[in-house]
Amino acid sequence: MRHFFQRKSSRQVAKDRLKILLIADRVNCSPEMMELIKTDIAKVISKYMKIDADNIEIQINAKGFKSGRYSKPSLSANIPIEDVTGDLNLNRQ
Hints:
By secondary structure, the protein is α+β, with helices and mostly antiparallel strands. The chain is 35% helix and 20% strand.
């Protein structure tokens, strides 16, 4: 269980970022667009629970769902949840 709490080396972080940039480039998604997507996801999720919006991680994965003869990319998000027990007004817009 100790490996869950270890920080990634700067080499691994750089490698992960490069993979994300290469995949995003293949699907024509700029870093600015990724930030806009991240912001929109944070707005929607925060309507229903308290999240740590500053530490959301999103990425486009090359290995997505198969459709026909090729695999479509998929978007995945890691969203840290701070609280789900608060008094939420589900009717707000």
